[in-house]
Specification:
By secondary structure, the chain is mostly helical. It has 13 helices and two strands; from the N terminus they run αββαααααααααααα.
Length: 295
């Protein structure tokens, strides 16, 4: 009887949270798929069931595939910088002997992450300004004026400029998380490696890297999922231009639904984004579970 009472008490705590998740997460997902099967004018409210026509249209939409390619590029660059680059930097910071210098370096690299994406986007919008922007001014002052250009005004450079800004903004946060993971590694392991004559490079590859693989897996999952949900920085800096060259799936969803008044098509894009991020999360969780580190 006591066990039943305890179980009922546990359910009493779980049910309200489960109800909130169902109402605010799962129900909207189901509704979004329902919307994606309709041709919906959000201003007049008229709805027409079209089945999977929105998905067929999506497969033949060149802007969607261009947006998908930009998201993939964003993910690849983010993995290189915000996962592996941040891990290397965190290892370098934690190798500094003086604690006050380690704290100072962590704070210095974390500061950009404390700036909101919107503010960072506006900041770099000014930095990239072709006439008075600091970047082109610096290039001209150092004799590299031939490289000065309209970074956000050209199809060939707009997306790269946005990605560069996002890496600057998110790099410090990833570094801090990896620094915490490295601090959890018992110092005795590093001591044993030093006694064996292992150098810093070999210690990184044979001690640090294997023992932070759970954090690496988590950061991979968060980084890639975030790369397919990019929105703010693109909207602030280019709104997907010029000529849709910097569109990502999030901004193309917004433009399709709220600018072109094709809400059903926008819901189809949202469904695709959800399925991609879900597949990435499930795959990464499976890999991480098989490589769990136990002390």
């Amino acid at each position: 009887m006591r066990a039943i009472t305890q179980r009922a008490a546990g359910l009493a705590w779980v049910v309200p949270a489960l109800a909130l998740v169902v109402v605010f997460v799962y129900l909207p997902l189901v509704q979004n798929f329902e919307f994606s099967t309709m041709k919906w004018d959000i201003y007049s409210g008229s709805q027409e069931y079209v089945g999977l026509d929105n998905y067929r249209k999506l497969l033949g939409d060149p802007v969607f595939w261009s947006s998908f390619g930009n998201n993939v590029l964003y993910a690849v660059v983010s993995i290189a910088f915000q996962v592996f680059g941040a891990l290397v930097l965190a290892a370098l910071i934690e190798s500094v002997r003086a604690e006050r210098w380690r704290r100072a370096l962590r704070a210095i690299y974390f500061i950009p992450s404390a700036i909101s994406l919107t503010v960072a986007g506006l900041l770099f919008y000014f930095i990239y300004e072709p006439t008075i922007g600091p970047l082109n001014h610096l290039l001209r002052a150092t004799g590299l004026g031939s490289l000065a250009q309209a970074w956000l005004g050209q199809e060939s450079t707009a997306m790269s400029a946005i990605i560069a800004m996002s890496q600057w903004q998110g790099f410090g946060y990833s570094t801090l998380l990896f620094a915490v993971a490295i601090q959890r590694i018992p110092s005795e392991i590093y001591g044993a490696a030093a006694i064996d004559g292992t150098g810093p490079v070999r210690r990184f590859f044979h001690v640090t890297l294997p023992l932070v693989r759970e954090m690496t897996g988590l950061m991979m999952m968060v980084t890639v999922s975030g790369a397919f949900q990019v929105f703010n920085e693109v909207m602030v800096m280019t709104s997907g231009g010029p000529n849709n060259s910097s569109q990502v799936m999030g901004t193309w969803l917004y433009r399709s639904g709220f600018v072109r008044n094709n809400f059903g098509y926008a819901a189809a894009i949202a469904t695709v984004i959800f399925l991609i991020t879900l597949a990435i999360a499930v795959a990464q969780m499976q890999v991480t579970r098989r490589k769990r580190v136990e002390w």
